[in-house]
């Protein structure tokens, strides 16, 4: 796990995790029952949230992380500084899927951007993007 020596301080971390947990309440997940929320901080300091949105055609499902990032980018954001992700309380932690890791990399401010993964109502694991996506694809 990453040490907290990056630009995000502890207060931001807890606030962001709270926003992610709250966003999970809007999850549309009738097929998996696995509700996920995510919250990103943009370069400008704006917080944008998202949830997973499933579909009867399962492959069309959009994860919470990508919902939040696409909302931020479509609102004008260029880069994200941090992301928090929260799965259902008491469920297994929502480690981002491979597709979401690649999308996070596309908009990450830096390779040491923190990724906070909720592990309970008041706990989380912290990783850098480089830890979760070593040698990600770039053009
Ligand atoms: N899911 C997310 O939204 N984010 C993750 O980090 C893990 C998985 C969603 C996709 C699907 O709606 C449900 O969780 C079960 O895979």
Radius of gyration: 14 Å
Q: What composes the largest sheet?
A: 5 strands, mixed
Summed up, the helix count is 4
Shape descriptor: globular
Low-confidence runs: none
Structure in words:
- The structure is a single chain.
- The chain is α+β, with helices and mostly antiparallel strands and 139 residues long.
- The protein is 28% helix and 22% strand.
- It has four helices and five strands.
- The chain has helices at 10-23, 64-74, 98-107, 129-132; strands spanning 37-42, 47-51, 80-86, 114-120, 123-128.
- Strands 2-1-3-4-5 form a five-stranded mixed beta sheet.
- The longest helix has 14 residues, at 10-23.
- It starts with 9 loop residues before the first helix and ends in a 7-residue tail after the last helix.
- The protein binds tetrahydrodeoxyuridine.
Features:
binds tetrahydrodeoxyuridine, 139 residues, 4 helices, 5-stranded mixed β-sheet, alpha+beta, globular, single chain
Brief summary:
With 139 residues, the protein is α+β, with helices and mostly antiparallel strands. Helices cover 28% and strands 22% of the residues.
What's the SSE blueprint?
Blueprint: H1 10-23, E1 37-42, E2 47-51, H2 64-74, E3 80-86, H3 98-107, E4 114-120, E5 123-128, H4 129-132
Parallel strand pairs: 3-4
Antiparallel strand pairs: 1-2, 1-3, 4-5
Tetrahydrodeoxyuridine (THU) is lined by residues 29, 32, 34, 36, 52, 54, 61, 63-65, 85, 94, 96-97, 100.
């Amino acid at each position: 796990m990453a040490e907290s020596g990056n630009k995000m301080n502890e207060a931001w971390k807890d606030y962001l995790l709270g926003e992610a947990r709250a966003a999970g309440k809007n999850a549309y997940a009738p097929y998996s029952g696995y509700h996920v929320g995510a919250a990103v901080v943009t370069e400008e300091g704006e917080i944008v949230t998202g949830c997973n949105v499933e579909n009867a055609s399962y492959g069309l499902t959009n994860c919470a992380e990508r919902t939040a990032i696409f909302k931020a980018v479509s609102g004008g954001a260029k880069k994200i500084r941090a992301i928090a992700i929260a799965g259902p309380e008491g469920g297994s932690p929502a480690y981002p899927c491979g597709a979401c890791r690649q999308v996070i990399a596309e908009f990450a401010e830096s390779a040491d951007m923190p990724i906070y993964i909720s592990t309970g109502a008041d706990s989380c694991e912290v990783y850098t993007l480089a830890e979760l996506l070593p040698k990600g694809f770039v053009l």
